[in-house]
Design brief:
heterotrimer, A alpha+beta, B mainly alpha, C mainly alpha, A: three-stranded antiparallel beta sheet, 3 strands, B: mainly alpha, c-terminal domain of poly(a) binding protein, 72% helix, 0% strand, UCP029876 (chain B), DNA-binding ferritin-like protein (Dps family) (chain B), DNA binding (chain B), DNA-binding (chain B)
């Protein structure tokens, strides 16, 4: 689906948290995962800015690991604050999506 | 020098005089809100100030309506007057400095990368 | 700030500039335009610039072009980078003593 950028804006950070929560991973792998999920327009740069923000807000643990090519690669894992933030994201998501579904069904 | 002369040049003064006359008829707290609105809208003005009058007319009308209904100015504009002004100007397709810099950045990148033949 | 801090800061800055110079041409062009834009909108954050160079070095090493990495809308990438840090406009507003606007965490 095209043109999801605006709609995804507030939720992409939560998606990235969820992916990192599954296992320690790095920017390119996260991007690929989102692309395979169906968000084809998500580019590495966008994921990078989210990772940088998560790092600065103290929600992730970062480890630099050697890679086969080029400079060391940054790997990300959730810390306790990150797990709390992820739980908050899903709670908010459940609330918003249930309200919007209700609206669509014509309830009040 | 009058505020509007400064930012618009004299030829728009008559329009602003009419606005100020309408503002003078507002109750005190609406008039205070108007002073705030002017300052923040000016930040979104283009170089000539000509993009402002239609917006100002609209905001002034909104203040007049709420005054007539006995509502407080903060009930319509909210506490964040600056944010409100940015929103109304944005709705009118106003271009701020930041927008100009943004376009300039993307244009420069496109031109210079094009020059690489890549 | 002592002399030593200034010297140390300059050394770091020149080391940073040398890393930028070593990037492939497309990355270098984009980096330089980005830096100009970022300096215009907010207080200089050299650690952010260093992070960008890290990211660009990784992308270049993986054989990707800069546009493949960050897309055509370089300005949007910059805006995402500085989301949450104060711009000059916000710094002015805060120092004017007005209510800070909603920053949206």
């Amino acid at each position: 689906m095209d043109d999801l950028t605006e709609m995804l804006k507030g939720t992409l950070e939560g998606c990235v948290l969820e992916i990192i929560g599954g296992e320690e991973t790095y920017g390119y792998a996260i991007t690929r995962r989102l692309n395979e999920l169906g968000f084809a327009d998500v580019i590495e740069g966008t994921v990078y800015t989210i990772l940088l923000r998560l790092e600065r807000n103290g929600l992730v643990q970062v480890a630099k690991r050697r890679s086969e090519v080029g400079p060391p690669r940054k790997f990300y894992a959730l810390n306790d604050a990150g797990r709390e933030e992820l739980a908050r994201f899903w709670a908010k998501w459940d609330y918003v999506s249930s309200r919007i579904d209700k609206l669509k069904e014509g309830g009040r | 020098m009058n505020f509007w002369d400064t930012i618009t040049g004299g030829d728009l003064t008559r329009e602003w005089t009419a606005f100020e006359a309408r503002a003078a008829a507002l109750p005190a707290d609406h008039r205070a809100a108007w002073e705030q609105v002017k300052i923040h809208l000016a930040a979104h003005s283009d170089l000539t100030g000509r993009n402002l009058p239609p917006v100002v007319d609209g905001v002034l009308g909104l203040l007049e309506e709420t005054a007539a209904e006995g509502q407080g100015a903060d009930e319509v504009l909210g506490e964040d007057v600056e944010g409100f002004c940015a929103a109304v100007m944005g709705g009118k397709g106003a271009r701020t400095y930041r927008d100009r810099w943004r376009e300039q950045l993307n244009r420069n990148v496109a031109r210079k990368l094009g020059g690489l033949g890549g | 700030m002592g002399i030593r801090d200034i010297v140390e800061g300059k050394k770091q800055w020149w080391a940073h500039v040398a890393r930028v110079k070593a990037l492939p041409p497309d990355y270098r062009i984009v980096y330089q335009e980005m830096q100009r834009y970022l300096f215009k909108i907010g207080p200089a954050d050299t650690s952010l610039l260093a992070d960008v160079v890290d990211f660009f070095e990784e992308g270049a090493a993986a054989g990707k072009g800069v546009r493949q990495l960050i897309g055509d809308d370089v300005a949007a990438f910059c805006d995402d980078l500085v989301k949450g840090s104060p711009t000059y406009a916000e710094v002015r507003r805060e120092s004017a003593g007005g209510e800070p606007g909603p920053t949206g965490k």
